[in-house]
Amino acid sequence: MTSSTDIELVTLDMAGTTVADDGLVERAFAAALPERTAADLEYVRATMGESKITVFRHLTGGDEDLAQEANRAFEDAYARLVDDGLCAPLPGAEDTLRRLRAQGRTVALTTGFGRDTQDRILRALGWTGLPDLVLCPADAGGRGRPHPDMVLTAALRAKVSAMSAVAVVGDTASDVRSGINAGAGLVAGVLTGAHGAEALRAAGAAHVLPGVSGLPALLDGEG
Q1: Average per-residue pLDDT in the chain?
Q2: How far is it, in rounded angstroms, from Cα 75 to Cα 77?
Q3: Which of 111, 113, 139, 162 could form a disulfide with 135 if both were Cys (CB 3.0 to 4.6 A apart)?
Q4: What is the separation, in whole angstroms, between the first and last Cα of the chain?
Q5: Residue 57 banded pLDDT, cuts 50, 70, 90
């Protein structure tokens, strides 16, 4: 069994895990789908963490043109919210990223957003260059969570010794399942985002933390 102290790479989700969401994702979805139904909103909540274009393909019944149009509207709406100053780090998140790197671990931030939106968030937070790796679905062949592709891509780029040396952390069931599907050595959920402890554990999380600030201690064998 891999010890948490053997973790070489930590991949962390952004919105809801390291970045405060505060309903921004739902607001952007509402702008992209003004004629949404209650069922649509429930689906959006259930699939938090997944690639946004995949979610829109489902909501538009597989119509690729409509899905792409809705995805562009979502990205534009989210970008406006970020530009309006409504994007903030979760408590302790920046310190956590720095502490993980100080421990000698590679840190990767992953997201279901597109590259432009991800970069805009990083600039707004002043985090450009803070993580070692920054990945969106397009960086991993286009497939987002719960597929393992972003985790596997991060592992390849970090040149880890084995997948057992990778930790995956997120606030949604999709984040957790991506770690499980990738064969990560440690998969943890945090309670600062979309899904609660029951959903995170049901998806396979071995640990559920109040927030990412507890992660360095866990990986140092103190948690």
Answers
A1: 89
A2: 5
A3: 139
A4: 17
A5: confident
